[in-house]
Specification:
CATH architecture of the largest domain: Orthogonal Bundle
CATH class of the largest domain: Mainly Alpha
CATH superfamily of the largest domain: Tetracycline Repressor, domain 2
C-alpha cells in the first residue's frame, strides 16, 4: 500500500523494519517472533500485521530493500568509461567497503538468513545478488581485456573478492586502529595485486 512520505504509516513501517533488523541479526530469524518484533517496534502484533502479513515478508522486505539500494548507490557512484578499467574497478572496491561497513546487520541478514525466505522470495533475492556480482565480473573482464589484469575466471574471482571485502563487517570497529580509508587502501592493494597475478 502506497504511503505518503513522512506519514505516520511510513514511520511505523520503518520502525517495524528497524526492529526486525536488530532482532534477527542478533537472535536469528527463527528466534525472532512477530510478537517480539512488534514489541521492539512499539506496536501491537495486530498493527504489525497491517504492514506485513508474515515474518517472512518482513525479512524479504529487508533483503530486497538492501540489495536494491546497494545497486542504486553503485549506479550513482560508478565513474563509467571516463576512467581506466583499473580505476573503475578500484572505485567499486572502495565503494563496496564504504557502503557495507556501516550496514553490518543488513550484511548479516543477506548472507545468513536466506533460509527464512520461501522459494519465490529466495529466487528474487538471489537474482538481485547476481546483478551486483555481475557488475564486478564485468569490471574484472574489462580490466583483463585492457591488459590491466590477468584473471582466468572472473566469476570465481568475483566470489572470492566479495567474500573478502564483505568479511570486513565482521571485525571492523569504528574505535579500532584502522579507519575506513585505511581499510580501503589495504584491501584495494590486495585485490589489485590478486587480479594482476603479480
Amino acid at each position: 500500500m502506497a504511503r505518503t512520505a513522512g506519514s505516520k504509516g511510513e514511520v511505523t513501517e520503518t520502525a517495524i523494519l528497524d526492529a526486525a533488523r536488530r532482532l534477527i541479526s542478533t537472535a536469528g530469524f527463527e528466534a525472532s517472533s512477530i510478537r517480539t518484533i512488534a514489541q521492539e517496534a512499539g506496536v501491537t502484533s495486530g498493527a504489525l500485521y497491517r504492514y506485513f502479513p508474515s515474518k517472512t515478508a518482513i525479512l524479504f522486505c529487508l533483503l530486497d530493500r538492501h540489495l536494491r539500494e546497494l545497486l542504486a548507490a553503485w549506479r550513482q557512484e560508478d565513474p563509467g568509461l571516463a576512467v581506466s578499467a583499473t580505476d573503475r574497478l578500484s572505485a567499486f572496491i572502495c565503494f563496496h567497503l564504504r557502503y557495507h561497513i556501516p550496514r553490518r546487520e543488513d550484511v548479516f541478514l543477506s548472507y545468513r538468513e536466506l533460509r527464512g525466505l520461501d522459494a519465490t522470495q529466495y529466487t528474487a533475492i538471489c537474482q538481485l545478488r547476481d546483478q551486483y556480482e555481475a557488475v564486478l565480473v564485468g569490471l574484472i573482464d574489462a580490466a583483463t581485456a585492457a591488459g590491466e589484469a590477468s584473471v582466468d575466471d572472473a566469476k570465481l574471482a568475483t566470489r572470492a573478492i566479495i567474500s573478502m571485502l564483505t568479511g570486513v563487517t565482521q571485525w571492523y570497529r569504528d574505535d579500532g586502529p584502522l579507519d575506513i580509508e585505511a581499510v580501503q587502501a589495504q584491501y584495494l592493494a590486495l585485490v589489485l595485486h590478486g587480479v594482476r597475478g603479480s
